[in-house]
Amino acid sequence: MAALVVAALIGWGCLMGAIEVAESLRTGVLNNRKGPDVLAAEQPVVYWALIGFYTAATLTAAGLALLVLAIAVRDLIGARDPDQ
Known about the structure:
The protein is mainly alpha-helical. The protein has two helices and two strands, in the order αββα. A two-stranded antiparallel ribbon has the order 1-2. It is rod-shaped, with a radius of gyration of 18 Å.
């Protein structure tokens, strides 16, 4: 059950990350919460490097969420099997 909660939290973080990346691609501005924003028109190399990094991190976290979810479902189904 704890693994399902962990998978849900990771999945929620992935959703928030994907929304942020999509919004940044739509507007051309990467909102930097601790410093100046990065604009695609003014700093294209930095902008695309950060978008690539955020996208890779979001996809990696989504894969981790799916892995944890698969393990949790397998354990829940296995717990109901009386042969094991």
